[in-house]
Amino acid sequence: MKSFLVAGDRSGSGKTSITLALSALLSADRTVQTFKVGMDYIDPSYLAGVTGRPCRNLDGYVMSPDQIRAVFAHGCRGADIAVVEGVRGLFEGAEALTDLGSTAAIAKQLDLPVVLVINARSITRSAAAIVKGFQAFDPDVDIRGVILNNVTGTRHREKAVRAIEHYCGIPVVGTIPRTEEMELAMRHLGLVPYREGQEHGGFLERIDVIKQKIGEHVDAGALLALAADLEQPAESSMYAAPDPDVRIGVALDEAFNFYYADLFDVLSSCGAEAVPFSPIHDTLPEADGYILGGGYPELFGRELEANTAMREGLREVSRNGTPIYAECGGLIYLTDRMVLAPGFMDADRERVYELAGVFSGETRMPARRMLGYVVGTSAAGSPMGEAAFKGHEFHYSSVRLAPETRFAYRLSRGNGIRDGCDGAVRDRTLGSYTHLHPVASRGMLAHFVDCCRG
């Protein structure tokens, strides 16, 4: 099995569009398994969309090395090529003096060669200095090749390529020209998840533009020659699945689709059958428990409000003690209402949408941007059980709950819903801003499944 990692010299280097295009091109006649470094939902949705296989996340801050290797092995089953997309710059991580949480750490743990994407706009010989610095910064990271992005002409390309190959001793396998077509395609794709984007006109055509342009300017043969030849990794027993004895409804539609691919495997390994349902289109299915993931409920406020049967159904099962676990967008949906300020998403007035009303309080958007890792503990007696955890939060909303609200999570890092408190609890429903990785927090999900058994 061939394998390589695409890293950037910084955020905005172009690694996401390049990885997307390479994965799509290689999938034409091979089975490609993709991975994404970090806790992210958008990029994996694209990578899964163009390969037809679930993209899996690898995060060295929330996951142990053994967990990372287990997820990598599980994802690689039956694949010819494994392609890993990095996060931000190659060495960016959670700390200044270690590589914890960085792309570099994943490359070393999995022994993957790195193809470094350099934003070459307005530089030629200096591009070689950047590559040379990256090589020297951590010699244990195996940088084998370079792709130059934003190249403006023949002279620019020839000078930069010659400098890198002379001073750094590694090949340049691609030079991507700066073109208006590429810029427009990526601007229109923006942060729209692949599932939602398919509903918009021209979305798939823009992906084709990116694939065509990068396919013309990257030597796929030279790239694969740099890739590592790995034996198929041994499968972890963590994914062994018994016959299911419990049904868990999982909200999955345009509004709620932020899930890590491993969630469904972890649920299965805990003896649970996942039953997808749509809070926009469906009535609530019969189940022993429910999971409401993140997403963009603010884009579908009218549709969510219109499905009165779903809102009332969730409120009723919550009051009856059926376990419900909700993250971020799911938390928002469980509040009484969502208030969108004038000017938000180009609205000319304030908009208010009635929601499920499980938690007393409301959500307001936009609010101060919250982005980063969280570290905390979960209290005994909550649907997620007593545990220490690491996770991630990313939102522009403010959930304002009643003063008497109880919280199961106490955060030592991160903000949560209120002053370091997260995991609002009512009956056996828990809603949080914290996103958990299902492998790193498998014990918490197993406890939730046990709660669903009654």
How many structurally independent domains? Answer: 2
Physical arrangement of strands within the biggest beta sheet: 11-9-12-14-23-22-21-18-19-24
Major sheet characteristics: 10 strands, mixed
User: Mind telling me the CATH superfamily name of the largest domain?
Assistant: P-loop containing nucleotide triphosphate hydrolases
CATH architecture label of the largest domain: 3-Layer(aba) Sandwich
Gyration radius, in Å: 23 Å
Portion of residues in beta strands equals: 25-35%
Q: Can you tell me about this structure?
A:
The strands form 4 sheets. The chain has a 10-stranded mixed β-sheet. Strands 1, 2, 3, 4, 5, 6, 7 and 8 form an 8-stranded mixed β-sheet that branches. It has 15 helices and 24 strands. It has helices spanning 15-26, 42-51, 65-75, 103-109, 125-137, 154-168, 180-189, 194-197, 203-217, 220-226, 262-269, 301-306, 308-319, 329-333, 442-452, and strands at residues 2-8, 32-37, 56-58, 81-89, 114-119, 143-151, 172-177, 228-229, 246-251, 256-258, 272-277, 289-292, 294-295, 324-327, 335-340, 351-354, 359-365, 370-378, 387-395, 398-401, 406-413, 421-426, 429-432, 435-436. It is globular. The longest helix has 15 residues, at 154-168. It folds into 2 domains: 2-229, P-loop containing nucleotide triphosphate hydrolases (Rossmann fold, 3-Layer(aba) Sandwich), CATH 3.40.50; 240-452, Rossmann fold (3-Layer(aba) Sandwich), CATH 3.40.50. Helix 6 links the parallel strand 6 (143-151) and strand 7 (172-177).
